[in-house]
Amino acid sequence: MLETAELGQTVDKATFDAQETPLRTALLQAQARLRQFKIPVVILFAGIQKAGTGETVNLLNEWMDPRWLKTVAFGDPTQEMRERPPFWKFWMALPKRGQIGLLDSAWYERPLRDKLTGRADDRHFDDMLDTIAAFERTLADDGALVLKFWMHLGRADQEKRLRELSADPLTAWRVSDEDWQELEQHE
């Protein structure tokens, strides 16, 4: 499913620097138009461990008008979440009309991770994807725009990132045993 995830596309710093201001301006203008038309926008970020979903969400929070953003990062389920239907936490995190919701580690995170690590067989994975598709159809039928981003790093870059995070006392807490296990399964 994700065999072709590495595209080898990069943007050098000079090109990025030249395009940053126009991109930021266009992003703010798009945000204002969405607000004017009362369209809820749901932006999902998922990916392999430490691929940069959090950094991307933080950057968008810097670049956009935070008054019209709703940012939620999902971690391990709380007791309250375990006592409710599986998608309850996502319903509660959805943005209002005219807002943009930045959802880090949302509804694709667990099914994809379970599939990639062998914790879910094909049938269970397909069932989870069917549930997600029905959920997204409901959102779209209600007028929401749903954008999905899968963040990827090659194995060497992922290992380098984990080592750097682990070596810094201020970021070591971000690296778990599960991160290292996922790295071992990375092809």
Draw up the topology in text.
Layout: H1 13-36, E1 41-47, H2 53-63, E2 69-73, H3 79-82, H4 88-93, E3 100-104, H5 109-116, H6 122-141, E4 145-151, H7 155-167, H8 177-185
Parallel strand pairs: 1-3, 1-4, 2-3
Helix pairs in contact: 5-6
Task: Describe the overall structure.
The chain is of the alpha/beta class. Helices cover 51% and strands 13% of the residues. A 4-stranded parallel β-sheet has the order 2-3-1-4, sandwiched between helices. Helix 5 (109-116) packs antiparallel against helix 6. It starts with 12 loop residues before the first helix and ends with a helix.
What about the largest sheet?
4 strands, parallel
Which word captures the global form? globular
Using the CA coordinates, give the radius of gyration. 18 Å
* Overall pLDDT level: 87
Q: What is the overall number of helices?
A: 8
Termini separation comes to: 13 Å
Please provide the count of β strands: 4
Cross-sheet strand order for the largest sheet = 2-3-1-4
Order of helices and strands: HEHEHHEHHEHH
The helix fraction, in percent, is 40-55%
Q: What is the structural class?
A: alpha/beta
Strand content: 5-15%
Poorly predicted runs of 5 or more residues = none
